[in-house]
Automatic annotation (TrEMBL):
It comes from the Bacteria. InterPro entries: DUF938, SAM-dependent_MTases_sf. This is Methylase. It comes from Pseudoalteromonas translucida (strain TAC 125). Signal peptide: none annotated.
């Protein structure tokens, strides 16, 4: 298998790291959901060595993630967990949960499953970081996000860019408080929640 590669991950990893660094300063364990190629897990585990980084995805992506992990052989980077949002999570409790570019890919029902999992698996005072494009009051933050949303829905009618307010409501119902909503490059946001 050829090592999978995402140019977007290369572009966004540094700006995301700059935001994660202070919010994850006191965390010890992070679960990443929908690790994709595995590039984020390698970079964040390298740059944040105080963290135990647990990547995860559906089994179909594990071979590619493992190719990235083998190249670095970091002791704080764990083999990918098989975590499909349709099913129970194969982990106990963690201090932080990170996901990038997943909410507009999976169905709304699976976004709800995400927050049900957060409620069950996040420690008190834990942090949730969600990166990706969002809508505000039904409006896209750019024409390119509008076009991207049309592409997504044509491909899969259950997917699509989510409304920030609907996500925040689910987060509140899971016991989370919004700490910050940071505008990121390329019309993305980084939502940071805390379990108080
Ligand atoms: C657009 S990719 C994002 C990957 C990576 N986080 C990134 O930022 O490049 C969406 C990811 O969601 C994952 N995904 C799709 N359906 C899922 C499900 N039911 N449960 C967990 N992950 C899922 C895919 O396997 C893929 O890794």
């Amino acid at each position: 298998m050829i090592k999978p590669f995402s140019q977007a991950c290369e572009n966004n990893k540094q700006p995301i790291l700059a935001q994660l660094k202070p919010v994850l300063a006191n965390a010890k364990t992070v679960l990443e959901i929908g690790s994709g190629t595995g590039q984020h897990s390698v970079y964040f585990a390298q740059q944040l060595p105080h963290l135990q980084w647990y990547s995860s995805d559906r089994a179909i992506n594990h071979e590619g993630i493992n190719l990235w992990h083998r190249d670095v052989n970091l002791t704080n980077l764990h083999v990918p967990l098989e975590l499909d949002l349709n099913n129970a999570w194969p982990i106990d409790k963690v201090d932080a949960i990170y996901t990038a570019n997943t909410f507009h890919i999976v169905s709304w029902q699976l976004v709800e499953h995400f927050f049900a999992g957060v409620k069950q698996h996040l420690n008190d005072q834990g942090i949730v970081c969600i990166y990706g494009p969002f809508k505000y009051k039904g409006e896209f933050t750019s024409q390119s996000n509008n076009d991207f949303n049309r592409f997504l829905i044509e491909r899969d009618p259950l997917s699509g860019i989510r409304d920030f307010a609907a996500v925040e409501l689910l987060a509140k119902q899971a016991g989370l408080t919004l700490i910050s909503d940071i505008a990121m490059p390329a019309n993305n946001q980084l939502l940071i929640f805390k379990r108080q």
